[in-house]
UniProtKB/TrEMBL annotation:
Keywords: Iron, Metal-binding, Oxidoreductase, Peroxidase. It comes from Pyxidicoccus parkwayensis. GO terms for molecular function: peroxidase activity. The keyword Iron applies. The keyword Metal-binding applies. Its cofactor is heme b. InterPro entries: Dimeric_a/b-barrel, Dyp_peroxidase. This is Peroxidase.
Amino acid sequence: MLELEDIQAGVVRPRPTPYAASYILLRVDERAAGREALGRLSEVVASAANPDRLAGRAWVSVALTYWGLQSLGLPPESLRSFSWEFQQGMSARASALGDTGESSPEHWEHPLGTSDVHIIVVALGPNRQMLDGELTRARKAFETLPGVTPIWRQDCHALPTETEPFGFRDGINHPAIEGSGIPGTNPHEPPLKPGEFVLGYPDEMGGISPVPQPEVLGRNGTYAVFRKLHQRVAAFRRYLRENAESSAEEEWLAAKLMGRWRSGAPLALCPAADDAALGADRDRNNAFQYADDPTGYKTPAGCHIRRMNPRDTPVAGVVRLHRMIRRGTAYGPVLPEGVLEDDGVDRGLMFAFIGAHLGRQFEFVQSEWVNAGTSLGLGDTKDPVTGPNAGTGSFSIPRRHIPKRLRGLSQFVVTRGGEYCFMPGLRALRWLAELES
């Protein structure tokens, strides 16, 4: 069984709906102050145990970058025990992640991707008022410490409709984890081994992944990826308008690109028309597989959700080895309905990944399924919604007579920055706070 009382709630607990969230980045200039801040934050961070205590409340999570652990004085032998992707940091992995051109680190928001980012504090709650109350508690942990400086903040929100900026219902897919007692959203997917998401437990390979040392530091921790993704909503709408002959066909094209109707209803269950009731039904809107649709007549093989999680589709590799806990939180105002020109306002998604394997989970999915299609049998095509298409992307919609071929897909999502982080268990947070030079 997972030691839920030692695992941060933000690792395995689904987020409330709707909710508001804030990301705050801290720089540690004085080692003692950084340790003191972690000790104080450990009293604020919520554990994954006692779900009734979390219901209807705001909670805080804490993560550290490699540079953050270094700033706290973690011994070199401990630093070397972390995964090599984490040691390099996201900006150094840009080419492997497809963060090139407009998405390259040279264009990222400062200080994202730099060695100045040490601690990431994430707070979320069912509404902004409750969130602000929890944030006040969290800020008291570092605001009075002269050696700890807040250097960046992003406020986010989830609309009551649960949609992201392109207008699709988000946050539907959540895997079940053995030993957590938390059900997944797809009843056709058996629970995954806990070691896929929390360090110190058996994983799908049958072993236990390397745990950062000493064990008190690594056990019950996990890796987290945070990415700020700017969404070109007007460009996405224009593309649909330019390639459709009616508003109904625009919605059909949008659903084929995504794999779901905007309501959240999956094409796998309602390929001909949207079903808003199904889209809103948490017991049904993720209860499907692809075995009955190998050609993609219902759900195109190259659409966004089928690339991100091929489910039972035969692909190169074992899908369960690449499963992720993925979460997204919108930021910026909604672009008014019908507007086709960019208003210059920044809007998009704060993407979060949770998993024990940065390489074979997040980086594999990003490089092999989002930015390429070979292992999925899709040639050199990229994800039509989030891939780096740069005006030359293509997408095929299988039809029984003549497939519909879309060309000239542009880049609808641009990376504005991100970080690779480690989310320690609660005991590890206290252990870090009590380090001695």
